[in-house]
Amino acid sequence: MRVDTDDFARPRGCGKNHLVEVEKILIEPGAVNALEEAMSEGFLKEYISPLLICDTNTCKATEELMEDIYDRCQVLVLDADDLKADRHAVEIVENYMDEDIDLILAVGAGTIHDISRYVASQYKIPFVSVPTAASGDGFVSTTAVMTFNGIEEEVPAAVPVALYADTDIFAKAPAGLNAAGAAELSDEKISLSLIEEGNPEACEKLMYALIKSGFSGQAEGE
Fold first, then answer.
1. What are phi and psi of 162, to 5 degrees?
2. Which UniProt keywords apply (predicted)?
3. Which of 33, 45, 89, 201 shows a CA-CA span of 20 to 30 A to 52?
């Protein structure tokens, strides 16, 4: 499913067009192959020093399918145990990343995306979203939920230049993660039982609905 981002930039009930900064959204099996193509010969080929940020769980879930992408990136694998989007995680990224990093790939769910979008914003580096679970609507968010000095807060952050959601990856996420995403929505057309079973079509519908919800949040300044 190639999502037309223009659908999210057309006039809403308020009569205004809302800015959408995400250039491409792809939700389908094999989406990471399209990402690799974009990096090798497409609109992302200008970025020659990408940093891929994942955690130990999402690395295990993606490294085989994304082998060619891992090979072309500097890769930072964060420990998934008790991982938080906080100052400590940001410092790990800052200490690891080379000075010439020009693109960040967030390969994970909410926490990895918050860390990645915050760092991308601070260093004015574009980032690409690669969701590994349909666990929430924050993949295209304009803010990151960060914990600083023990206080959780929303801070301005970067919007991804592109989102590649590979059904072969996110439909196989732990059932509880995708169920959490479904719980955020009130769409009765999305079957929770099919989501928990990892049904590809149901998971794709969920991912689309979450991204649509995220764009609605963008329009409201969230």
1. -160, 155
2. Cytoplasm, Lipid biosynthesis, Lipid metabolism, Metal-binding, NAD, NADP, Oxidoreductase, Phospholipid biosynthesis, Phospholipid metabolism
3. 201
Q: State which H helix or E strand residue 161 sits in.
A: none
Residues 69 and 61: their CA atoms lie apart, in Å, by: 14
**pLDDT tens digits, 59-116:** 999 999 999 999 999 999 999 999 999 999 999 999 999 999 999 999 999 999 999 9
Structural domain including 160 reads 2-10+17-78+86-214
pLDDT tens digits, 19-61: 557 889 999 999 999 999 999 999 999 999 999 999 999 999 9
Q: What is the CATH number of the domain that holds 131?
A: 3.40.50.1970
64 in any annotated domain: yes
User: Are 121 and 135 spatial neighbours (Cβ–Cβ below 8 Å)?
Assistant: no
Rounded Cα distance between 222 and 215, Å, is 9
Contact 17, 155 (CB under 8 A): no
